[in-house]
């Protein structure tokens, strides 16, 4: 997958009010690395997410802030995952007065409330609770650009993982109506048509759900009409490398659980079947 990724510079100005600093942690799930964003145009800036706290990242942050003749007043965390929170310690070591905001905050952090707005010169960010990827997940609307910091609900390349598919789909629908411009994702390049990408995500998830239902309607090569998540993956994701099948199986399980809540499937042990499905 790494060979297919778009090359991104460590530090890049994306707009007059937004600079992306990569987290220095590229990988299979972090893509080019976690995106952190320095937001604003004046002497006080906001920082969205903190990467894992890699030495190259904090060095790039310090260098960029110095070049901008600015300081960081507040950090806004999109969600609890370590590749977004790991740099908090480095930031507070360098800027002891910095304020760290997060939904469901840890000791020493401040709460982000749904609808709360954070303002510095040149940028106003409004936090919206959009669970799905995680229960605490927040996105941030940049009013001046009609843009959205999407965290890990929407990525610049590929698709996102989630804890609860039904909740995640509701959040994607909510995000669609928040903005009309570009999306600044937690990983990957900037998305020029943010709402369009979210629409693609919604359609993709609906297609995957339909694939699961259609496969459940067919006879399992192992016999019968009951399938395990991994058996479904081997059919639906036959074009995906085998080492990614476990991650795909987790996604399929989320689809099955959503269908179960809707009364469309049932489970016996690890085997899932359509409810009331006729084999004729």
TrEMBL record:
SMART domains: Lactamase_B (SM00849). GO terms for molecular function: hydrolase activity; metal ion binding. Keywords: Hydrolase, Metal-binding, Zinc. Pfam families: Lactamase_B (PF00753), WHD_BLACT (PF17778). The keyword Oxidoreductase does not apply. Belongs to the metallo-beta-lactamase superfamily. Glyoxalase II family. This is Metallo-beta-lactamase superfamily protein. It comes from Lasiosphaeria miniovina.
